[in-house]
């Protein structure tokens, strides 16, 4: 999947699918922030975006229209998970409202999965709201299964499903090599999750 | 910036919580603790040394110089900057992140005057709004977005006062004519009791396992909720307020007067019920009086008039938090009262725990049933029950609770538990072997010690929210798996000593491991059933998961059958040796074991019938089956079986075996032609297997029903037990109807033709299933 990089938008406008690169931060980061924070009750600081894009910019894909306007974006990371497997994580996915229902998000996710497969990922994880039918459908069509239900996962009090896709045999039995400083990415894919935000803000001395 | 050592610890705690289960309740969770320590061997930043006075350095110039060495857009990130920290970072001057940022014309503080006189209607309005926020807090929102947005509450709590009389809507001396009037005094008493109630709630919840934010927010933002003041102070304030309102000289409409009194009475009764010092014996006296006041509050709510200005998000700026002001949580008063009522009835239900017979199986039934209540009990109610369960009076029962559990299954009237075994002394010469009966006692003592933690782990898990219960059980199962390995060795010794005493036939083969295995399998079944209940499995996975459930229940059934047989053997032995009383008591115990056996039989058979039904539905393409380009059947099977892969004995069948059970006619897309022959043949094995399973399930559940709740050690929750048993029977009947519908739909089917029916899967939590974990579909004309 994900070998052709052009697709026709609704208005016949050809979309271009582009891999992000750190050198494009000034061009694309403001648009990425804007697109993603549209669906959030509270914005992420620029450091959240940079956290992902600085380390895993090559796992971020963008859909651009002919005027190079950002239509959709997927942001990921890939690192050893504390339980053992080399885990990819889809942290953010957004498509402009006017362009939804055309398979743009699916295309972006497929590109991200292909990239993670190429980088030898064992599995891919993400969270999504239990009520977000469109998102569940998108990922489940690709092969993700629900592994856990997470009570009051999001700021709005909603529960989430954690979705997992195994890419390799033996992933369930993988154990960490020594101790990996794996920082679990429990983030969104929907409205912002509060735990980390609050947990940290309590200690940060900016009142 | 935040203290990194704190953050790391915090982050790790959150990490381990997903992996292990609880925050350090004991040895079973030692692994979580040790991994936390192991992490400190990583290159962490050094923790700041305590005690040394902070030194402030101006780094502006250095920082500016360092920045100039960077290109525009170039980033520097050290390896300690985690996702966790990035999410906590804020941007100065961003109005949504910077809590000090003021929009043009915006003021930092509100100008609401909490000393301005109130109308009686406004008093009611404020009280009701506070109650609404209190309940929002109970459902998981932080105080900062609920109660702490009240200007009145803020004034009482800040600046902190040394004594309760000093806790006023003002501080220090004010002119007499500025002093608050009667209605404000009444509001103050109401608020004080409300705040104290919050203190009690936090104390009770924090005494047990809970998960900050996920369950409940205990954060008080450096406000002290009158922790030191005893309850009488608050009750006195409420009493005095009631007198003031009852005073006939107070000119006030009578309807409003009694509405205010009802609110004060409610507050008083509720505070008494929340009092953590309340002795166990009289707990149940405190909840019933609260309910009538809730109704009165409800009936007079419309008399109130809201005072929107008395609540403000701006107060959040002064709380010990750097989260920017968040919107006040919106609550419907109707919903808040519903939550309150639920809280009171759940807590009242929890108090029934103390009246249960001293029987761990009754406890387990109660805990499971309480956790299954709909709507799900709030964190406070769950903590309330846990506090009763872990009360020394309950926990330090004169008998070992786990041993009582073991006894019910495998050691009834057994020489191994003969009290005289514990009265034997070891031989004077330590080189001489100990008498075998003393060895029984020592081995059992050792086992009881060993079983304690895993046993408590199960109880702790049963006290969690439903989602976490499922995840935590998966970890508890691992602890019981290790216990099972240990039980094998103890069993070998028990059998050897029984052989020495020539009483081998009085001891069942592998008693302790059998008991552990029965409990472990029960938990595995629950994890799967909870998965169905929580909509974890997609429709085309149902066949496979019910298949696995059926296998597990069948193993439990086999283990229980050995208990039944042993019990029968013992009865015969007693009769032969003319121990008629023992024979009688042993055969009476059979009803419990047999009830468990029938239960397992029913679950196994019914799950098998569902496996059969969903398999056919898969062949008929009646269930949505995604294309899944990135996945394969065996990878999905591995993911599903992950929690059980390490268990001994091995519980997960090889993939080939699983696939053969799921696809008896080959792949769903290209099945063998015999499938269509079997579809059309009413008495083919395909249909007769389902029919036989359904019949076996119905028979078994009918037997369970006949035994009744008491015999099944669920006497304390008889109503719920009856409902569930009835629900299982109803599910069997409903599946029978669905099978018949399917059968008639395929009676003329050809490989090329489809079927003119649809399968409807009843949704979770909508009261559309007889029992939530059992998804019985409906066949609709297509």
Tell me what you see in this structure.
- The complex is a heterodimer of chains A (207) and B (782).
- Chain A is built from five helices and eight strands; from the N terminus they run ββααβββαβαββα.
- Chain A has helices at 25-37, 46-56, 104-118, 133-142, 194-201, and strands at 6-8, 14-19, 61-64, 70-80, 86-95, 123-129, 145-150, 160-166.
- In chain A, strand 5 (86-95), helix 3 and strand 6 (123-129) form a beta-alpha-beta unit.
- Chain A is globular and about 45 Å long.
- With 782 residues, chain B is mainly α.
- Chain B has helices at 4-19, 30-39, 60-68, 83-88, 120-138, 151-157, 182-206, 231-246, 254-274, 290-299, 333-351, 360-371, 379-389, 392-395, 401-410, 436-462, 466-500, 511-533, 542-576, 580-619, 633-641, 655-662, 674-680, 685-711, 718-745; strands spanning 757-760, 778-781.
- At the A-B interface, helix 2, helix 3, helix 4, strand 7 and strand 8 of A face helix 1, helix 2, helix 4, helix 17 and helix 21 of B.
- Chain A: GO terms for molecular function: protein N-terminal-methionine acetyltransferase activity.
Shape of chain B: globular
Strand content of chain B: under 5%
- Gyration radius of chain A, rounded: 17 Å
Number of strands of chain A: 8
Strand order, biggest sheet of chain A? 1-2-3-4-5-6-8-7
Low-confidence stretches of chain A: 1-7, 179-207
Radius of gyration of chain B: 32 Å
Largest sheet, strands/sense/barrel of chain B = 2 strands, antiparallel
In total, how many beta strands of chain B?
A: 2
Order of helices and strands of chain B: HHHHHHHHHHHHHHHHHHHHHHHHHEE
The overall pLDDT average of chain B reads 91
Q: Tell me the series of helices and strands of chain A, N- to C-terminal.
A: EEHHEEEHEHEEH
Q: Which secondary-structure class do the elements of chain B indicate?
A: mainly alpha
Main location (chain B): cytoplasm
Domain NAA35-like N-terminal (chain B): 73-232
Protein name (chain B): Amino-acid N-acetyltransferas-like protein subunit Mak10
Domain NAA35-like TPR repeats (chain B): 365-757
């Amino acid at each position: 999947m994900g070998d052709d990089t052009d697709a026709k938008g609704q208005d016949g406008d050809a979309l271009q699918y582009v891999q992000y690169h750190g050198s494009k931060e000034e061009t694309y980061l403001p648009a990425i922030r804007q697109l993603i924070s549209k669906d959030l009750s509270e914005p992420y600081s620029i450091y959240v975006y940079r956290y992902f894009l600085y380390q895993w910019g090559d796992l971020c894909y963008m859909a651009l229209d002919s005027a190079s306007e950002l239509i959709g974006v997927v942001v990921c990371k890939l690192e050893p998970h504390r339980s053992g497997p080399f885990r990819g994580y889809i942290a953010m996915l957004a498509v402009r409202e006017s362009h939804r229902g055309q398979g743009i998000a699916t295309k972006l996710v497929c590109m991200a999965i292909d990239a993670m497969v190429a980088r030898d990922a064992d599995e891919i994880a993400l969270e999504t709201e239990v009520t977000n039918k469109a998102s569940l459908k998108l990922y489940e069509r690709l092969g993700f299964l629900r592994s856990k239900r997470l009570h009051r996962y999001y700021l709005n009090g909603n529960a989430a499903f954690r979705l997992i896709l195994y890419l390799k045999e033996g992933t369930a039995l993988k154990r960490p090599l020594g101790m990996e400083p794996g920082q679990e990415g429990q983030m969104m894919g929907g409205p912002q999750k509060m735990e980390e935000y609050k947990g940290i803000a309590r200690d940060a001395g900016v009142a | 910036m935040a203290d990194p050592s704190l953050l790391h610890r915090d982050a790790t705690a959150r990490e381990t919580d997903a992996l292990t289960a609880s925050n350090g309740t004991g040895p079973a969770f030692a692994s979580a603790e040790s991994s936390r320590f192991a992490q400190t061997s990583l290159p962490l930043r050094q923790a700041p040394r305590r005690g040394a006075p902070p030194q402030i350095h101006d780094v502006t110039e250095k920082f500016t110089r360092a920045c100039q060495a960077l290109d525009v857009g170039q980033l520097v990130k050290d390896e300690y900057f985690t996702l966790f920290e990035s999410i906590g970072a804020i941007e100065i001057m961003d109005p949504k992140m910077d809590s000090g940022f003021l929009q043009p014309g915006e003021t930092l503080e509100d100008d609401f005057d909490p000393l301005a006189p109130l109308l009686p209607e406004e008093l009611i309005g404020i009280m009701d709004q506070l109650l609404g926020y209190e309940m929002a807090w109970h459902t998981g929102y932080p105080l900062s977005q609920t109660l702490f947005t009240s200007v009145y509450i803020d004034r009482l709590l800040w600046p902190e006062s040394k004594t309760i009389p000093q806790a006023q809507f003002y501080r220090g001396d004010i002119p007499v004519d500025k002093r608050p009037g009667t209605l404000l005094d009444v509001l103050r008493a109401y608020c004080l009791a409300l705040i104290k109630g919050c203190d009690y709630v936090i104390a009770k919840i924090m005494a047990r396992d809970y998960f900050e934010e996920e369950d409940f927010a205990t954060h008080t933002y450096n406000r002290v909720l009158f922790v030191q003041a005893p309850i009488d102070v608050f009750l006195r304030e409420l009493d005095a307020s009631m007198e003031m309102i009852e005073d006939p000289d107070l000119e006030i409409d009578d309807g409003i007067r009694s509405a205010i009194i009802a609110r004060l009475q409610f507050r008083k009764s509720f505070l008494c019920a929340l009092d953590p010092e309340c002795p166990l014996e009289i707990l149940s006296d405190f909840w019933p009086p609260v309910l009538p006041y809730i109704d009165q509050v409800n009936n007079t709510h419309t008399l109130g008039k809201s005072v929107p200005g008395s609540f403000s998000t701006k107060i959040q700026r002064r709380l010990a938090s750097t989260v920017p002001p968040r919107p006040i949580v919106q609550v419907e008063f109707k919903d808040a009262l519903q939550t309150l009522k639920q809280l009171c009835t759940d807590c009242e239900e929890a108090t029934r725990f103390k009246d249960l017979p001293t029987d761990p199986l009754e406890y387990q039934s109660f805990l499971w049933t309480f956790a299954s209540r709909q709507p799900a009990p709030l964190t406070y109610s769950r903590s309330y029950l846990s506090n009763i369960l872990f009360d020394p009076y309950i926990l330090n029962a004169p008998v070992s609770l786990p041993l009582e559990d073991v006894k019910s299954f495998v050691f009834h009237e057994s020489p191994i538990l003969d009290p005289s075994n514990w009265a034997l002394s070891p031989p004077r010469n330590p080189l001489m072997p100990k008498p075998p009966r003393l060895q029984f006692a020592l081995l059992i003592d050792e086992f009881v010690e060993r079983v304690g933690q895993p046993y408590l782990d199960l109880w702790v898990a049963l006290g969690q929210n439903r989602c976490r219960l499922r995840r935590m059980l998966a970890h508890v199962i691992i602890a019981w798996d290790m216990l099972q390995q240990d039980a094998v060795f103890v069993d070998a010794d028990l059998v050897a000593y029984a052989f020495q005493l020539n009483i081998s036939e009085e001891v069942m083969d592998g008693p302790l491991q059998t008991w552990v295995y029965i409990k472990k399998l029960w938990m595995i079944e629950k994890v799967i059933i909870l998965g169905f209940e929580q909509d974890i499995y997609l429709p085309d996975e149902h066949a496979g998961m019910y298949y696995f459930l059926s296998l597990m229940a069948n193993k439990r059934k086999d283990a229980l059958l050995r208990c039944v047989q042993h019990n029968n053997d013992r009865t015969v032995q007693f009769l032969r040796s003319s121990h008629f009383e023992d024979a009688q008591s042993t055969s009476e115990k059979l009803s419990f074991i047999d009830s468990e056996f029938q239960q397992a039989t029913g679950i196994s058979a019914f799950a098998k019938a569902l496996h059969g039904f969903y398999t056919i539905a898969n062949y008929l393409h009646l269930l949505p089956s995604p294309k899944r380009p990135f996945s394969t059947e065996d990878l999905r099977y591995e993911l599903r079986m992950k929690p059980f892969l390490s268990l001994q004995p091995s519980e997960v069948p090889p993939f080939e075996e699983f696939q053969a059970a799921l696809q008896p006619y080959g792949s769903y897309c290209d099945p063998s032609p015999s499938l269509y022959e079997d579809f059309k043949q009413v008495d083919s094995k395909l249909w007769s297997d389902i029919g036989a399973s359904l019949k076996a399930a119905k028979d078994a559940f009918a037997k369970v029903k006949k035994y009744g709740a008491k015999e099944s050690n669920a006497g304390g929750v008889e109503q719920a037990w009856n409902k569930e048993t009835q629900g299982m029977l109803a599910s069997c009947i409903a599946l029978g109807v669905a099978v018949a519908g399917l059968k008639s739909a395929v009676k003329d089917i050809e490989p090329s033709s489809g079927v003119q029916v649809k399968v409807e899967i009843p949704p979770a939590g909508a009261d559309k299933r007889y029992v939530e974990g059992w998804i019985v579909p409906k066949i609709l004309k297509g």
